[in-house]
Amino acid sequence: MDMIPFDDRDGKIWFNGEMVNWRDAKTHALNHGLHYASSVFEGERAYNGEIFENEWHTRRFRESAGLLDFELPYTDEELIAAKAEVMAANGLTDCYIRPVAWRGSEMMAVSAQYSKTHVLIAAWEWGSYFDPELKMKGITLDIADWKRPSPESAPVHAKAAGLYMICTLSKHAAEKNGFTDALMMDYRGYIAEATGANVFFLMNDGKIHTPNADCFLNGITRQTVVKLLEEMGYDVVERHITPDELANVTECFLTGTAAEVTPVSQIGDHSFNPGGMCRSVMDAYAKLVRGEA
Description:
This protein is of the alpha+beta class and 293 residues long. It folds into two domains: 12-124, 2-Layer Sandwich (D-amino Acid Aminotransferase, Chain A, domain 1), CATH 3.30.470; 132-289, D-amino Acid Aminotransferase, subunit A, domain 2 (D-amino Acid Aminotransferase, Chain A, domain 2). The chain is built from seven helices and 16 strands. It has helices at residues 32-36, 54-67, 76-89, 132-137, 165-176, 220-231, 276-289, and strands at 12-15, 18-21, 39-41, 44-47, 50-51, 95-103, 117-124, 139-148, 181-186, 191-194, 198-203, 208-211, 236-239, 249-256, 260-267, 270-271. Strands 8, 9, 10, 11, 12, 13, 14, 15 and 16 form a nine-stranded mixed beta sheet that branches. Strand 11 and strand 12 form a beta hairpin.
């Protein structure tokens, strides 16, 4: 695959309170975030120069760090200002923004309560998470072998780097099998989410159903779309959904900051035709994030 490595690009990155050249935004290889996954991040999008739900993303960034038992050394106001500074320094108005925080190199063991917290914010142009032509037809999802863990076994409500390893494994396996992505179950066997996005189903009862976000991230886009759907007149049901209920699905879509609203045409052996509901939600969301609603 031909791509530009993320460590070899032009531009500026905000790193521990200073704007640095993109290629100089480095940390030591012996840091706790790399070795023990004490790292949290956010994924945000800006439209027409405005970051959608900026304050909400900033608040979740801080909450995720707290769930991993460390504090961000900057106020929310400082982080919001830094994001604007990064966008301006790179001449971006429509872009993806990635804040990330991690524990440093002071302690290289399981304990790391005295390690310094580092914070970095980068931004770059990023269109559709999925192939735009494929997105309109609906992407395909394999059924993942890995399951979302119990809240008793992981900080499941944090946007924590370590929780995404099973997502990477699941997506790699799905791509090897000819699918676009994978649908993951939770530790009880209920439908949970895709590897980086939440999932919604239009069932044959005419209502839109979505899994309870009780053991995985309750996405900001997910919560936004639930409210949007209700305003559009749909009945939204948040509940535990079993895999055999896929037989009752007529339309399906994913939501996420990166994925935005993406229709699904297949999950395992079940096929759907993205139709009017998917189109209307995609259009309504696009207008909302660009301030046209």
